[in-house]
């Protein structure tokens, strides 16, 4: 294992503690002492601090964490040493594999030159594309008369009096 990187002055001030179980049996080790004696303890203690504080922590550590000295592992029959991950297809990720030019339309605000790969797709000019939402005409508006009737009904009907009335903005 390579020497771990510590931020700040932790390499000189951090202490690893071990309690033997006897009175006065608390042992403190500096980072240098731990690196000489048992260097994998630094990584194991860092991971141990990130796990949930319960009885399963010890089992999880033993079952799932394997620390090797150096950059190579000993599981050659199961896992090769260094593998390059296969690159992801960006078209598949974005859902463009089933892209059908007949069923799609390109909408744009200003007339511009289209790239050559988009030439067979129909085009539409949409001048309202950059128009802010507050400037657009509202399509789903309620008449204020409906709110007034609802308010009067809530005040008059005894079943609705127990609910809190919120002021409308």
From TrEMBL:
GO terms for cellular component: mitochondrial large ribosomal subunit. CDD domains: Ribosomal_L13. Keywords: Ribonucleoprotein, Ribosomal protein. One of its GO terms (molecular function) is mRNA binding. Gene3D superfamilies: Ribosomal protein L13. The keyword Nucleotidyltransferase does not apply. GO terms for biological process: negative regulation of translation; translation. It comes from the Eukaryota. Pfam families: Ribosomal_L13 (PF00572). Belongs to the universal ribosomal protein uL13 family. This is 50S ribosomal protein L13. It comes from Strombidium inclinatum.
